[in-house]
Amino acid sequence: MYPLLAFAANLGGGVFGLGAFLLMAILHPLFSVISTQAHIWFEGLFPEQNLSLFDQIMLRIQSRWDDYTKSHEASSFENLFKYGTISDKQKVLDTIAEGFNISYSPILQSALNDNQNVVRIQAAAILTKIDTEFDNKLKKLEKLHQDSPDDLVILLQLAEHTDLYATIGITDEVRSLEIASSAVFYYRKFLEVNKDQFVVWLAVARLLLFQNDYESFIEWYEKGKDQFKYLPSILNSWYLQALYKRKQINEMFWN
To answer: By Cβ atoms counted within 10 A, which residue in 74, 79, 125, 135 is the most buried?
Structure first.
């Protein structure tokens, strides 16, 4: 192929065309290597999203919606609620009803306060349906735990479901805090047997802050700092927030 290109370059540009071709021939292998390395480099920057449980929880914590799978859809749905017709809003609510995700909670809350009565009624019906489904699953897991109190798999499933139920935004504040307290209880019960489960420890920290229980969070954080070698930087921010709320100003500067 190269001889043919050289002949064409010579015809088209004379000695300058041939010189350009020779330069291309020299640089082509080099750029091929560089492009391959760049490809590998970009793969490292944007790996396949096969996340561990730890990474999932960290993304959940740091995400605006406390979730990590549907945020882009939620943003689009919010725009529809701002600018869409009644029919558009109803279609969004139908989609949410088919496959609810935690990132949709703010949209449901917005729909409950919509100026169109038909939208408010549909949103209330969906919220009731979702709440019933969560409550039924909670009762089922509680029964399983009662029948097999030493089964750690069931205990962790109960803790995680209770955690999600508390923070998903489908219940009133009082009910959410009650459920969050139950989630903390179940997580701590699990940690009594599996003390080194950092992800579970982290879930407790998040829920204590969710409950505005700053005193318990400070104590939990300080114990965790001694127990675990690595704490995500966001926890340090939470710690400073808790110290500020507790008006422990000196500790803010000396920790």
So the answer is: 74
C-alpha–C-alpha distance, residues 68 and 142, integer Å: 27
What is the CATH architecture assignment of 51-251? Alpha Horseshoe (1.25)
Answering whether pTM is above 0.85, one says no
Residues in the chain: 255
Assigned token pair, 23: 């330069």
Per residue in 183-231, pLDDT tens? 999 999 999 999 989 999 999 999 999 999 999 999 999 999 888 877 8
Q: Residue 248: how many CA atoms within 13 Å on its side-chain side?
A: 14
Kindly state the tokens that stand for 33.
């290597």
How far apart are the two ends of the chain, measured CA to CA in Å?
A: 68
Q: Where are the domains of the chain?
A: 1-46, 51-251
DSSP string, 18-85: HHHHHHHHHHHHHHHHHHHHHHHHHHHHS------HHHHHHHHHHSTTS-SSSHHHHHHHHHHHHH--
Distance CA 204, CA 202 (A): 5
Is residue 93 within 8 A of residue 126, CB to CB? The reply is yes
Tokens 């969560």 belong to 134
- List for the chain the helix, strand, coil content (%; round to 5): 80, 0, 20
Residue 122 host element (H or E)? helix 117-147
